[in-house]
Design a protein that fits this description.
The chain is built from 1 helix and 4 strands. By secondary structure, it is an alpha+beta fold. The protein has one domain. The longest helix is centred in the last third of the chain and has 19 residues.
Amino acid sequence: MVTVLLPGGAEIWISDAGARVDHPAHQHTGWTAYLHTGPDDEIGQQIYEQPSTGIGLAADTVSLLAFLIRYVDTYRPA
C-alpha cells in the first residue's frame, strides 16, 4: 500500500483491488484509493477506482496521478 499524507492528519491509501502493490505489471488489477480522515477511520471512503478494466498499469497509474493532483489541490480538512 502507498500512503499519501494530507493536511489535518488525513491519509489516502492506495493499492490494487487485492490490497497489494507488489506484483508484476501484467498482473495489475486496477488502482483504488481510499480517504481515511483520522486514526479511527479504518475503512475509509473510496475516492478512486480504475476507470475501466483492462487499461493496464501505465494508463491506470496516469489516471490515478491526475486524479490525486486534482484531489489534493482542492482537499480541505473537515
